[in-house]
Amino acid sequence: MKSRWSWGAISGAVIVGTMLAVVPVKASDPVGVYALVERVVFEPNDSAPTAVQIWGAFAIAVTPEKRPYPLEEGYKSAVKGYLYFTCPAGKSATCTAEWNDLKSMAGKDGVAGFGTRWGTGAPKIRRADEKPASPDVYQLNTGVVPMGRNGAYPTLVTALKTALGRK
Predict the structure, then answer these.
(1) Where are the domains of the chain?
(2) How much is the mean pLDDT over the chain?
(3) What does DSSP say about strands 111-114 and 33-43: parallel, antiparallel, or unpaired?
(4) Whole-prediction pTM value?
């Protein structure tokens, strides 16, 4: 007796069933920092920076094993201040390109994502009155990801704007 199901129909049903079972998980977001950038300062100069100060409000990623986290998207509470970075050895062209991307977003309403959630450590958010010293190593990942005005994480965007005193 012949089966009513062909291998093509069975594999098609398995594929469709698998696609329907896939649920997006925000904790898989690879971005290490979401920022509302106010300004970017290159050190020692704009043409050949070896370090950068990124000023604004920042929400730093929390790895899944450190739950619970304040923002439902997996990020610490937004904090105003600045991040201070140096570039990993041999990656200055990539760092400069990403830092210029962040500079192009400075003073605008769009949120920028950069760095990696799975790096060697979260960057330190420094207070405005704190002198730049001991920069963190800039984590390269997927480049600078612009989120736009409202972004995919509305609570996070609101928290960043609130940290800067914006509405």
Answers:
(1) 26-163
(2) 81
(3) antiparallel
(4) 0.79
